[in-house]
Specification:
Strand order of the largest sheet: 5-6-7-8-9-10
CATH architecture: Alpha-Beta Barrel
Radius of gyration: 19 Å
CATH class: Alpha Beta
Oligomer: single chain
Length: 343
């Protein structure tokens, strides 16, 4: 994004209601290569392809605030790779990872993660250091550091089914794993901010796994770790959270974590979300990303987007899909969001 777009994002976050309504979309490797017709491996590992690809989408959609902007990521592989997970790369899709924590207690013997040396974190940090000046010289900014959340990282390392069983069968072990992951995430975010420099004024955390557990489990296994991450960074930094699973049971609790912006599921009405969060969060959403974003017509997307704006009733809102840009989302449907925001 450009610096003025970051200012628009922050103004919308504060409830200053920029006109037209701010439109921001989470764009990363699942969508960009397919949209541009390039290979995933080329996008991830060819710096020139990556740079030109990001330039192209921002030039093609100048009204859209692409978020987090200039994200140097490898699917969801960075965090688990730093702990030693086997990463499998594919030419036509994002990488996958193989769980390696077969015995939960083994995490106690793991050394802390060092982002400067471990796994794909080191590669990404080097990439930011090499590429940032070219990005700034082109008139863009890199405003946030980005990471997967604690339960998300834990599920990669342990396996999602095993982790769900551990929540009830070995909660003490889960807490040790989550503490390990939380410490690693904080160091990873701090390392990105240091590598990128003073343009970083916020963090972006993605973690859908809390939306798969009860409110009671959320309060025990998610809330304190998310809060620890938020508190590790300056109070005036922008803190954005993505979770497009079922956050309904703990929406009011999310408003007390320390986040400023929530990108949430389209399955929860924007009016209900505003009521549950008490106006303490700016909501980023929530047009259906698959049923409408990918499969719908531009007219359907525009109608749904207008309804979101109307249902927000003047509350803090950044218009988006209720999740990231899904693979296959066409240009026409993105422009329909922009059109709705301009009305």
């Amino acid at each position: 994004m450009r610096p003025q777009q970051w200012e628009t994002f922050k103004a919308a976050m504060r409830g200053q209601h920029p006109a037209p309504t701010a439109v921001s979309l989470i764009a990363d490797s699942p969508w960009i290569p397919g949209y541009l017709g390039i290979g995933h491996l080329d996008y991830m590992f060819d710096p020139e392809v990556w740079f030109q690809s990001n330039c192209k989408i921002m030039e093609e959609f100048p009204e859209v605030i692409f978020f987090p902007s200039w994200w140097l990521e490898y699917g969801m592989a960075i965090e688990p790779s730093a702990a030693g997970s086997r990463i499998q790369f594919h030419s036509g899709q994002t990488p996958s990872q193989v769980p390696l924590l077969f015995h939960l207690e083994d995490v106690e013997r793991w050394p802390p993660i060092d982002p400067a040396a471990d796994g794909l974190m080191a590669l990404a940090l080097h990439g930011y250091q090499q590429r940032k000046q070219r990005i700034f010289d082109a008139g863009y900014t890199i405003p946030v550091a980005t990471a997967r959340g604690p339960l998300c990282m834990a599920s990669f390392l342990r396996g999602i089914s095993e982790l769900m069983l551990d929540l009830s069968e070995n909660p003490e072990g889960v807490h040790k794993l989550l503490s390990f992951c939380t410490d690693a995430i904080i160091r990873w975010l701090q390392a990105q901010a240091e590598a990128i420099g003073p343009s970083v004024e916020g963090i972006f955390l993605l973690d859908d796994i809390p939306g798969m557990i009860s409110r009671r489990s959320y309060l025990e296994f998610a809330h304190p770790y998310l809060k620890r991450i938020c508190e590790a960074f300056p109070a005036d930094w922008v803190k954005v959270y993505h979770n497009d699973a079922n956050v309904r049971p703990f929406l009011s609790d999310l408003a007390t974590v320390g986040f400023d912006v929530l990108n949430w599921t389209h399955r929860i009405d924007v009016g209900d979300a505003l009521k549950a969060t008490g106006g303490r969060l700016c909501l980023m959403g929530n047009v259906a990303p698959l049923d409408l974003g990918v499969r719908g017509t531009p007219a359907q997307v525009e109608q749904a987007a207008r309804q979101v704006i109307e249902r927000a009733s003047g509350g803090r809102l950044i218009l988006s899909f209720g999740g990231g840009l899904s693979p296959g989302t066409p240009k026409e449907n993105i422009l329909a969001l922009v059109q709705a925001a301009a009305m």
